Fold these 2 entries.
Entry 1:
Amino acid sequence: MTTTDTSEKGLESLIVAAMSGTSGLFPEAGVLRDAPVPFGGTGWIAGNPQDSEREYAVDLAQLSAFLMDTQKAPAGSLDLGRDSPTRRKFLARLQGEITK
């Protein structure tokens, strides 16, 4: 007989597995996981809470990877790899645009 984890963590694990197609909750900090999807998934990639820039409500590792893949030249000038006035200005502007 199989037991079901009915805790909040158990439910979270099921949701993450359904969305990402993987069984692990979070990858290492700063590392994006592009694992094969063994059983479905929606294309969502699980992030790591340590990568979250709480002040701006953004996953900095995933945002940086997306910008480098889609807009390499402008992304390099945003200084996303370190805390700087340029990065803070960009993140504030992004947050403002998303809020609109």
Entry 2:
Amino acid sequence: MSERDGYRHGVPCFGLGVFPDPDASASFYSELFGWETEDLMPADDLGSYHVCRLRGRDVAAIVSQHGAPAPPRAVWATLIWVDAANEAAAKAKAVGGEVIGEPFDSPGGGRQAVLADPAGAVFSVWEPRERRGAQLVNEPGAWSMSALYSPDPDGAKRFYGELFGWGTRSFDMGGAEMLMWTAPGYVGGEPQQPVPRDVVATMSPPTEDGDGPAPHWSVDSWVANVDEASAKVAERGGEVLTGPYDVPNTGLRQSAVVDPQGASLSLTQPPGAG
């Protein structure tokens, strides 16, 4: 378990789900993860901004598809902490990215901009004000890590290196290599984790035949029992895409799922859970 009271520039800090029916999603994830939710929007407002909490601490948000340019489908987005959203948006554009949604004051308590890297993977930057990212991470029911899929790893390394100062390391997963994004000098994660604690995200290698998914950022949440959680997703109208399976060289057990509104995410059972 990790409690957080803020992050640093260039570190992913929050998972935010954008849904056509946010109330239904808030109910689904409350049952799946044990969350309590609070809609911050006034009753007469057409939009919703649900803050999701575990033991009274912020762990995620679920919002409606309006305001900033809405994604074409339900999605879990990754928010990355920055010192200034306006400057981060301008820099992203200067180094080859795209500004999908200009910086705006979010009802969630921060200033946000929606960006895309040169390959088209969408993410957001978050300049904190009242809300300072996830207050609980790395425990069952909470977000743990975000991962990038890109068909152009070299281009991704250049872009995120210039934008956030990220470095990279590799991790052997039983013959397959996973790239890890690092923020030099940052200490996160858990002391017992199998990867260095300056790792802030990962990147999956492109498929050999080039027939992989569209470029995107995905989120991973921990659960106490991934087999039971995956079964619950399917019972409640979602779909299990892969797994559950044991991740080589990590002690983790994982599955990839899609929720009833079509948003994908991974579920991970950490060592010792279950």
